[in-house]
């Protein structure tokens, strides 16, 4: 018979010697250390199999159940959820750390048995395996394929897009399949457009891994590719099943990419959320130092602002256009200077300064706001002027084919009134636009 003694949350157990030649010899006396999560007041179960002792303990109700192979709890905290209200096409934005370690969040939005993950050469080594695990954990019926695209804005074109279609067709993705965009804004836009087009539309999920994508491009259903004559001129409005923002992915984001995304965060404050802008002025250093709490709030508030606008104006007939503050000038910089030379947020930052300058020339804002915009962009390590190679003619030629041109009239998003107010209009003095362009360009 075995005898046992309990002392100090441990169990000393004496076992009889082996009684046949098939049974491995085991020590007659050994000590079993019980997990701290299982105090001796809790019921314990001892089981001996093939000379191995299995110890299990039932924790008291007040004690969290722990994973015995690690120090993590078995249940993760629920994510923050922001809803994009589009009626029957509404979807959640999940925000929080470690969301790729919560398979249920992704799997509940996967339709069918086939998944195609679209990512790039930078993100794939970091998060592709984790994403595939999240899609397949406890779900053996799902088959996951992946296509890894080259990284960069200059590859956001039709030729690269065809690689997604090639993979989808080769692996026989069907109408019930789900495309998953794993990466920044370029991947999100391209995967979304591929999903909108493949078999005339299949489901897709956004997993943004950059600040830019997390606070802006992954939300709202804008998808597309660039043309050599203009940015995002080919695309579709196509909403995802969900957006999953694992804030841990920002840990691997380069500083320049992180700063680029802050241009869109700043935009929300300027156009519609004065309180958020004032918060940014006080917390910019915390954002740059990647403070988890600060970033969680910045992402949440940005998504709330965008979700509210998209819910009211999905197809950009008016209100949603205001989200493009600085983008008309910024897209001209990206196109004229060369895709990928400047990051999108860097071009938007310089474009925002130009839009603010024009707003001031029109007499719509006071100079204190002009100064505040300059200060916060510099704090965020973002440019406040376009590249020196940009000319007035380059701006004019690209802006002439901007998506916001209607009946030959270029409409702009400009600030008007106190902080947090803007207009989308073609009713402005053309002299102010010319003065702004000449003020920022040498020729």
UniProtKB/TrEMBL annotation:
InterPro entries on file: Dehydroquinate_synthase, DHQ_synth_AroB, DHQS/DOIS_N, DHQS_C
Pfam assignment, any one: DHQS_C
Top-level lineage group: Eukaryota
Protein's pathway: Metabolic intermediate biosynthesis; chorismate biosynthesis; chorismate from D-erythrose 4-phosphate and phosphoenolpyruvate: step 2/7
Gene Ontology CC, one term: chloroplast
Presence of keyword Kinase: no
GO molecular function, one term: 3-dehydroquinate synthase activity
Protein name, as recorded: 3-dehydroquinate synthase, chloroplastic
Source organism of this protein record: Oldenlandia corymbosa var. corymbosa
